[in-house]
Amino acid sequence: MSSWLQFWAGSDSVGRTVALALLLMSVSSWTLILWRSVTLTRARRSLARALPLFWAAPDWDSARSQAQALDAERILLPLIDAGRAPLPAGSLGEGAGNEARLTRQLRDALHQSVARLQFGQVLLASVGATAPFVGLFGTVWGVYQALLGLGAGGLPSIDRIAGPVGEALVMTAAGLAVAIPAVLAYNWFGKRVAACEAELEGFAHDLREFLKSRP
């Protein structure tokens, strides 16, 4: 913390902008990590409980009601409603066959649910990819500023070089500290999203086959 404060006190506007950018990346990524950890865990749990109850229900209305009560993240209900959603009169979709219409509506609902599950993944990937380079830029800029100060202040020495350069290296460490949790969370969330997506794809396929046999 003292090295960070020393860097902040001795840096110019560019160095402070880099430090603030890393702080913003860290706050946004950790907020997203904590929030998505809760929502994805809840989504997995909801799917595990709602799907068996849906197929065990005696009729469509009760099956939908049970799924709605358990679908906290609203990733299952769009698929259920898509199977019975009417089309506007006179539309191109209305002229297509029932199977084509059903396939299209289930596919669109599946994409909507998967997009909801993947929310925030782009931010985590961006932070993980760019934070080390932002920190490295802050280090290079800090070393450059330190060398300029040494050049204007007489003969250089190890003591005069080590302090400013050590403070500048804190930015590289800060960039890695921001990037590593974001990358780990991105990979972990990707695995959980893929598991939920597989469950939803299987449910969409089963729902399509069920509705095809109904008038």
In a few lines, what is going on in this structure?
The protein has 215 residues and is mainly α. 84% of the residues lie in helices and 0% in strands. Helix 2 runs antiparallel to helix 7 (121-151) and helix 7 (121-151) packs antiparallel against helix 8.
List keywords for this structure.
215 residues, 8 helices, Biopolymer transport protein ExbB, cell membrane, 0% strand, membrane, mainly alpha, transmembrane, ExbB/TolQ_transport, single chain
Task: Describe the structure in your own words.
The structure is a single chain. The chain is mainly α and 215 residues long. The chain has one domain (2-212). It has helices at residues 2-10, 13-56, 60-70, 77-82, 92-95, 98-117, 121-151, 158-212. The longest helix has 55 residues, at 158-212. The protein is rod-shaped, with a radius of gyration of 27 Å. The model is unreliable at 89-93 (pLDDT under 50). It is a multi-pass membrane protein. Its main location: membrane. Residues 98-201 form the MotA/TolQ/ExbB proton channel domain.
The percentage of residues in β strands lies in under 5%
For the report, how would you describe the main beta sheet?
Answer: none
Q: Please state the CA-atom Rg, rounded to the nearest Å.
A: 27 Å
Using the alpha-carbon principal axes, give the shape.
rod-shaped
Task: Give the topology, please.
Elements: H1 2-10, H2 13-56, H3 60-70, H4 77-82, H5 92-95, H6 98-117, H7 121-151, H8 158-212
Helix pairs in contact: 1-8, 2-3, 2-7, 2-8, 6-8, 7-8
